C-alpha cells in the first residue's frame, strides 16, 4: 500500500501524461521585460488564442546572457513539453562566459524572427545624434558607461563593433551588463549608465512617450515604423540583426521534435503572431528542422569570430 501511494505521488509530479498539445512551458532565459521575455509571451498568446496548445506557461530564468537558463534547461531530460527561447545574445554569452554547455546540447526547433538593436539616451541627454556621442566617446572612452545585456551578447557586440569603427579600442569600453532590457532601462533612467544598448522593443514605449531618444538602429537599411537612422546612414559601418528562436531539451524523439515544430509553425500563421510581428517591428525569418540546426552552427561560428576580433 505504501509503495502504491509513493508511485501515485511520483506519477502526479511527472510530465509523462502530458503532451506538447496539452501543456507547454517556455523558458525565457532573462528577466521580465527583455527581448526573450517579450518573444516568449507573444508566442504564448498566439498558442493560446487559437487553442494550439491547451496550457502554455512562461518561466523566467535570468542571468549571464541566458547561459544560466541554458544550463538548467539541458538538465531537464527529454521532456517534449518544454522549449526555451534563444538567439544571438546567448551565442555570444556562451563563448565569453565559457559556458559548460552550448546550443549543440539542445534540440533546435525553429527560428522565429529578427529584430534590431538601438543605441539609446535619455531625452535630456546632450547627445542628439550618434556622432555627438562618438565624439565624446573618443576623448575618454572609459568615462562613458554603456549599459546592455550579458557579456558577449548582441548588446555587447554592438557596443564593441561601434567602438572599433569609431577608432576606439573595444577593450576600453566601460560596458556594464544587466540581466535584461528592463534592467538596462532602469539604469539609464537613473543615470547609472550614460547610454543604453538593447532591442528596440525594450525601449519602444519610453521612446514613444518622449522619455528616451534613439540615436541609431542596427539594421542594414531603414526599418519601416522605426523613425531612427541606421548606424550605416550615419557613417558607422555596423549592422547586427538579433534573431529569436526556440530549442527543446536534448534527447527527445524525432516524432516529438516534429510535433513541436508543427506547433510553432502553426503559431506563426495565426493573426496574433502576425500582429506581434507588426507591433514589435520584427522581421519574420521562420526556419525549422535541420536547416535551423545548421544555421545555429554557422551563426555561432560568426559570433565567435566577432568576439575574437574585438578581443572580448
UniProtKB/TrEMBL annotation:
SUPFAM superfamilies: Periplasmic binding protein-like II (SSF53850). This is Tripartite tricarboxylate transporter substrate binding protein. Residues 11-25 have a biased composition (Polar residues). Residues 1-26 are annotated as: Disordered. CDD domains: PBP2_Bug_TTT (cd07012). Belongs to the UPF0065 (bug) family. It holds the Pfam family TctC. InterPro entries: BUG, Bug_dom1.
Amino acid at each position: 500500500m505504501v509503495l502504491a501511494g509513493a508511485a501515485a505521488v511520483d506519477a502526479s509530479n511527472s510530465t509523462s501524461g502530458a503532451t506538447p498539445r496539452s501543456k507547454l512551458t517556455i523558458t525565457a532565459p532573462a528577466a521580465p521585460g527583455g527581448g526573450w521575455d517579450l518573444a516568449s509571451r507573444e508566442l504564448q498568446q498566439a498558442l493560446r488564442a487559437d487553442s494550439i496548445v491547451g496550457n502554455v506557461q512562461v518561466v523566467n530564468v535570468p542571468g549571464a546572457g541566458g547561459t544560466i537558463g541554458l544550463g538548467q534547461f539541458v538538465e531537464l531530460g527529454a521532456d517534449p513539453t518544454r522549449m526555451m527561447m534563444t538567439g544571438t545574445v546567448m551565442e555570444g554569452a556562451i563563448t565569453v562566459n565559457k559556458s559548460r554547455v552550448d546550443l549543440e546540447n539542445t534540440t533546435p526547433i525553429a527560428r522565429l524572427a529578427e529584430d534590431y538593436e538601438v543605441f539609446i539616451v535619455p531625452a535630456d541627454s546632450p547627445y542628439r545624434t550618434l556622432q555627438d556621442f562618438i565624439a565624446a566617446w573618443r576623448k575618454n572612452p572609459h568615462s562613458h558607461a554603456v549599459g546592455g545585456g550579458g557579456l558577449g551578447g548582441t548588446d555587447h557586440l554592438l557596443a564593441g563593433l561601434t567602438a572599433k569603427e569609431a577608432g576606439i579600442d573595444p577593450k576600453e569600453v566601460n560596458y556594464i551588463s544587466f540581466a535584461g532590457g528592463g534592467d538596462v532601462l532602469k539604469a539609464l533612467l537613473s543615470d547609472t549608465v550614460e547610454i543604453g544598448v538593447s532591442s528596440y522593443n525594450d525601449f519602444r514605449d519610453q521612446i514613444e512617450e518622449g522619455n528616451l531618444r534613439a540615436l541609431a538602429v542596427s539594421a542594414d537599411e531603414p526599418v519601416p515604423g522605426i523613425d531612427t537612422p541606421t548606424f550605416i546612414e550615419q557613417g558607422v559601418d555596423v549592422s547586427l540583426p538579433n534573431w529569436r528562436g526556440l530549442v527543446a531539451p536534448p534527447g527527445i524523439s524525432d516524432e516529438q521534435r516534429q510535433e513541436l515544430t508543427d506547433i510553432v509553425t502553426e503559431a506563426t500563421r495565426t493573426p496574433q503572431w502576425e500582429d506581434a510581428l507588426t507591433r514589435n517591428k520584427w522581421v519574420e525569418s521562420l526556419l525549422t528542422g535541420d536547416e535551423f540546426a545548421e544555421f545555429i552552427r554557422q551563426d555561432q561560428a560568426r559570433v565567435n569570430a566577432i568576439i575574437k576580433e574585438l578581443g572580448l
